[in-house]
Each structure stands twice: as structure tokens, then as C-alpha cells.
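Bench log, entry 3. Co-assembly request; chain sequences pasted below exactly as received.
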Amino acid sequence: MNRGGWPTRSTGIIDNYSLIQKGIGTVVPNYRKVLERGVSGIIREIDERLASLDLTDPTTPQRVIFLKSAQMALTGLVEFARRYARRALELAAAETDETRRAELLRIHEVCSHVPEFPARDFHEAVQSFWFAHVAIRIEESGHSLSPGRFDQYMFPFLGSMDRDAALELIECLFIKFSELMLFVNMDTSKFYTGVPQWQNLNVGGRKPDGQDATNEVSHLCLDAMIELRVVQPDISVRIHDDTPEDFVLHACELSRLGTGHPKFYNEDLISYSMACKGLSLTESRDFAIMGCVEPRVQAKEGIHLTGGFINLPVALELALNDGIWRRTGTRVGLPTGDARIFRTFEEVRGAFEAQLAHLIRHMFVVNAIAETAYSELLCSPFLSALTEGCIESGRPLQQGGAVYNFGPAVNEIGVADTGDSLAAIKKLVFDEKRLTMDRLLSALEHDFDGYDDVRAMLLHEAPKFGNDDDYVDTITREAVQFGNAQVMRYRNIFGGQAQSGIIAVTAGIPFGGVVGALPSGRKAGQPLADNSSPYPGNDRFGPTAIARSVGKLDTAALRNGTLLNLRLSPQSAAGPDGLRKMAALVRGLCDVGCWHAQFNVVNTKTLRAAQEHPEEYTDLLVRVAGYSAYFTQLHRDVQEDIIRRTEHGL
Amino acid sequence: MSTSGVVFDIQRYSLQDGPGLRTLVFLKGCPLRCLWCSNPESQRLEPQLLYDGDRCTLCLRCVPVCPSGALTSAGEGALSYDLTRCTCCGACVHACPNGARRVCGETMTVEHVLGLVLRDAPFYRRSAGGVTLGGGEPTGQPQFARALLEACRSHGLDAAIETCGYADTRALLSVAMLADHVFFDVKHADSARHRELTGVPNELILDNLRALLYVHNDVTVRYPLVPGCNDSGDDLRALAHRLLHLPRIPLVEMVPYHRFGEHKYRLLGRPYTLEGTPVCDKQNSEQACAILKQHGIRCAALVH
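Structure output for the full assembly:
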């Protein structure tokens, strides 16, 4: 411990440092309000709120300070836009090209009107949105500041506008999204490799009344990404039973390009999960995905002050070693007893659960301190003004001004590693008694050095998560849901309930670095499994089996969302027939209970990398007519043939 | 007692063996020995031991555990395997720390297979997909194949079979009539050449195809297009001639030759006869299709 418990670096056992060190984010602001009422409308609303305050109420002075600061920030945005308007006019005056001058004059006209006043057409709506978004990003260098249901609030402005012109505007906007960058420190960059922005732009889904929400803007956003193939925004496609097939096919067309866009979401399952928080049916349907896969009540939900990652396999390591962390040899967990004398699997599981509950408790010790500091020291007046509840309550986000304040979110990392390890112990040590706990622990202690027979048994004769095997899938779910239940015991500084999910980003790499050898057969220091995916190389039956294993985790109960990356070969989605089958796969993924899925369509680069490092790509399946093969097992010249075909999209 | 049979693989998320997303159940045992066979481990009905020399570190841990003496240490760092002694008990599989050994083929009950097949039911519903029995040769285990197909039908699943057509006519028809779709292989039009390539003549196969076409309305002919074996213009014109004499001219799918099965010959310790044969590309299959189309035969080229 140090300086009153404030972390100076991540332990790798729990990590909330990365989130604490970053700017405020993880929110879907009320862009619709800016478009429809204009900043001047919001300033007027604040005036009205100020006028209605009871001046004898001792909390009023604080509210006045916040409301006036919000007004200042909003006024600043108007001035910010006027500068663009003036500059456009200057450039127009000096411009000799007629076409360009007309464009500049149009820019001048648009920037003179928005965001101050309500947008009058699609061009103004796009510009107004962007001004508001940039202003938020100037106020906060936060991640996951997400547009949310862009197609819903933009569609009313589309009118009869020429569709090519609308597409061009959306494309310009997407290019701007891709220009933004975050400031993060070194540690955080390991947990969030590539410094992703997570400006999550949703399309499709249901309207609050339950009707299908897909519209022309939804399609235009897909078209824009198909043409541009830029990194941002993250396109999120929301799928339900009534989603028109042409929209699913359109989204699959984008997906098979191999850019990672879009992400697919299970609309109704997520609404169901939202309703379990006590929200109304209409609010539950009007969620917006922000960040990776996390749902928020659009425009009404506050920021998460803290949150982070919890390393599940460390809890198991501590359970098998009486609370001692192998990496340091020190006791960081509870003294749960010598695992060598455990008589039943239930005792192993009991020790694991005790250790996990202990780690999660520590996470919330740090959270409590961090949340206090945040609410006392920080204020985001502009972002608060764009969140429902803050103006009404007179309190900024950091003081719980939003209508809803769920969270923080704690993500469980190393899910498959933990499930595989527990299943191996249950099957080999207790059910079949083919391995003694003593020998298993010695093998782990020596990182399997001299115990390759033990490792072989663990790898090849214990069931692995991701193969639709109920034995291991059930154990995995129980471990994950135990962690979930522990997290949900805690509340944030505003009284909102914490929630957990399975979103690792790239935390599995630094987290794996601090975990010793595991009963799953994984060696010390190796990265942990990716998000909710099986451990690399363990899946044998393709995407449908993986999806069913993930569905069995009971993803609706994991309210922060569960992320699933799947790998597909381009051949499997080739041609109109392949596209239809991919769409059926997406719909089937929803049916079996996946929260989210996104496809890595294998490209030549991946195949080349698999040739270089076959050990990292043992699970790389190549699909062929009536036949599938593991790429790394094929002859070099056959591999070359596949690479040639991949390059030609055959 | 429930009907059981020998299955050598179950492959979910199959995309080209009938409509929609499918689960492919491979039955073990095939009467043909096609030179290009991409599943050589499926040819014998009995379970078989596969050995991957690339994974083997010659630690020789398998030698003492072998109860039938099929594995012996042949001096310093060498291993000898006597196939005739091996009973496929799997002891060496458990003993191997490197995953170099695997038993191919498992006796499974209809209920067991059905349980696995039904796991992807949501995906069949979304894609109008289902189950496909392949092989090996599904009509080689007619009782098991019929019981499986009946079980699938009772669950409302779309069912298909892939057959080489070389079977007792009544057995073949009794299995095929339980399937919604039949993929029927024709490998060469000329019987003598057929025997060279597959080990058996083709009269029975063509007679069975004729009989099937009288009673089944969803039959697709599959022609494996193998360079140097059956891809010449004469070969294809002879095929067209055969097809034109059938009671009904079925759709033909050209299945281009690939070499994804080549490494399996190594695992079985067998030579690969077609070593060096070029794979079939899109152009080859389209040219072949064009020849059939000239004869008014509908034809589609599958991709790898």
C-alpha cells in the first residue's frame, strides 16, 4: 500500500489504474438536444432553471456555480463555431474558383447558424453534431465518448436531400472521427493497445416503442464505411427478429471486407438486460452502445468514475496456493488452506470464490477513494449540460447529476483460462482421479518443466471452453457469475449498482504476464484468452460451437456486456450465397444468447503471420468445399495456394 | 439397444454440403479408394491410429504402454510401428505428451450423434440448413444411416446425404429416400478408367443413379475435377453423354481438386499417389462446366 491506497501502477491482479488515469468518458451525450434545440435553447433552459432555484436552499449556491459554468462552456462553443464561420467568409472573399467559393459561403452560412440554433437540414445537423462532439473532446480526453444512436437523431433531418450529398457529408464526418486522438500514459497503453477511441456509432435496432428503427441513415452509415474503411467511428449494428434482411446483408457486406467493422449486437437480449436494472420498457429499448459493447441509457446515464479489470486466473492461483501469489511469493490473498488436502472439487471452488470475492472487494476499496477524489476535484460542465438530469438537478456528472448512475463496471479477464482450469481439476483430479493435486501443483510450480506428461493430460484430456461442452461451459459460467454477483454487491458514490462484463480490450496480455502456469495447460506468463473467446487453439468446432459456449455464460446477466471476436475465412462469406449464410450466422448468434460478435475476416497478413509463428495460430481454420483444415498443419505449398486465393477473394 | 455406427468426424458450420448452415456427420468406411481422396482416414470402417511425425519428439513414452507390442524402439531415437498388431486401444494416445497420436473413428449411438447435431438447430432455422451425412460412405452403414436420418426427420431437420453410389441398390435407395437432398458422386464415365482411379468399376454406380432419379426428386451429381485424371475434354464429353441417357438430367456440381488432405496421408503412413498434381483453379472448373453446358446440362463450379 502507498499514499493512502492510491495506485501508482497496475498490479495486474486488479486494474483500475488505467481508468482512473484517463479522462472522463464512457458516456453517450444528448446530441439530439443540440440538433433540435440548439445551444441557445440549452442556455435558455439553464436560465429558466436558475430562475426557479430557491435562494434560501443551502445547496443552491453550489448549483448556481455549476449551472453558470455550464452556460459559460456552452457560450464558448457558440463562439468557437463563429470563428469557423468568419474564417470561411475570409477564405471565400479571397477565393477565385467559383465552385470553391460557393462551398465556403455555404460553410459560412452553416457555421453561423449551428450549433447556436436548431439545425434546419442534414448538412447543419452533421455540422452541429460535430461541433458538440469536438467540444466534448476538448473538455475531456476521455475514451468512449460515443455518438450513440446516430441514425435515429439524424434521420429527421435527412428529408429529401440528395442521397449522394448526404453520403458525402457522413463520409467527411467519419474522416473527422478518425483524426481524434487520446492522451494516455504508458501503463494504460498496454491495457488499451493502439489507443482506441471507441466513438461508438449505432445503427439499426428498435425504436423506444418496439418498432424496427432501421432507416436510410443506417444504410448510409454502412455505405460510408464500406467506401472509406477508416478506423473510426466504431460502427455498431443492432440486430433483432424484425431487422430487415437487406440491412443485415448490407452489414455483412461491410463485415466481410475484413476491417473489423461493424460490431453486431443482440438488440433484444440487451434490452432485456437493461430492463433488469429497473428501467422502463421504452428506456430499455432506447439504450445506446458505447465504448466496446457497453449499453447506456441514451443521453440519461452518467459517467463511470472508476471501474476496471479483475484477473480471474490469479484468484484460482491464490486458491491453489493458500493465498500466496506465485510471482512474488507473498500472500496477497486469503489463507484458504493447503489445496493438497482438499477432498472435493467443491473445496477448490470454495477457495477460488473466497479469493475472487476478496480481490473484488479490494477493487472497490480503491474505487471508493477514487470516486471521492473525482467528485470533489473534477467537474465537466459542458458534458454535464448535454446529459439529462444535470441541469434539472443542478449537479454535474461528477456529483451524480445524471438521471441514472449505474456502475462502475468491472470486467472479468481470463474467463476461458479459469473455466478450463477448474474443469481440468474437477475431471482429472476429482472425477477420474488420474492426477493427484500434489503432482498438479508441483507441475504448476515448475511451469511444467519436467512435467510434460501432466501438461499433455491437461491440454488434451480435459474439456475446453468454446466447444459447446456443457461440462466445462457450466463451470465457466458459474465462475463468471460468481464474480458478477460479487461485483453487484457494491454501489457507487451515488448509490448506483456496479455491474460486470467480459471486455478485456488487450488486458489479457499484461494480466497474463503476472499469472503462473495454470491447470488449463497454459504456461506461465502467456497472455490470457481474448475476451469471452476460447483459449487460442482450443476450439475445434468453429463459430457456432463457440457462440453456444458463450451464450451459456448467461450474457444478459452480465450487464456491462460480453465481447466476442470470431475469425472467419473470406471464402466462407464469398458471393451472394456466402453473404446470406453469414447473415444467418449473425442471426443465429443472437438466438443462442451472444451479446455481441465481430468478425475478423482472415486476410493475407494473418496467413503470413501464421506461417511465421504457427504456434500462435493453431486455431486458424481454413474452410474449403466440404472440408476444413487447420492452416498451420498444411504443407507450405498448399498454404501458398490458400494465400493466393485469399488475395483474389476466391 | 440403440443403433450405433462408426463416425470419424462431426463438422459444424459446414457451408457447402446442402442448403444453409449444416452439420456434417462423416461415417467411416468407403468401398472406393480414390487416388485424390481428401479423407483417407475415412476409408477403413474400423477405427485407425493417426501418427503425426512432425509433433513426435521420439521420447518413446508410447512404447512401454502399448499392450500389443505394435510400437517398438528401433534403436537410438527411432520408433517402429507395426500396423498389423495395432488394436487401436488408444493407450499410446494418452501416453503421448505432444499430441502426436490420435485415434480416428468412434462408435457412436444415434442418440449421441443427434444430440450433437441438434446443438446448432438455431443456425439451421435461420438458414434453412440442417444435417448432411457424408463419409466415408453413409450407405456403407445403411442401418445406422437410416436410423440417423429418421431421428433427424423426427426433429424437423433438413437432411442430406453425400454418396459415392457404390452400394447395394436397395440399401442405397432405402437410405437416400430418407434424405431431402442427395449428392451423388460420378467420378469417371469410363468404367475401366474409373477402376484405375477409384478401385471399382462404374456400372453399379450409374445403375444406382438411374434408379435413384426415378424415385428421388432432389439429386445433384458431383464430379470431382482432378487434373490429369478426369478433366480432359474427352472425359467431360463422355460424362455428358452418360448423363444425357439418364431419365432426368440432374444438376452437376464441379468439385475442384484440392490438396488439403495430403498431410493426412503422412499421418497414416501412406504415400500420396497424386504428389505434384496441380490444384484445380476457378478457370479449370468453369471450362469443365462450359463443356457440360454445351450439352444442355446444368452445371455449377464449386469453390474450394
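The radius of gyration of chain B is 21 Å. Chain B touches chain A at residues 10-17, 20-21, 24, 38-39, 61, 94-99, 119-120, 122-123, 125-127, 129, 134, 162, 255-256, 258-263, 279, 282, 302-304 (CB under 8 Å).
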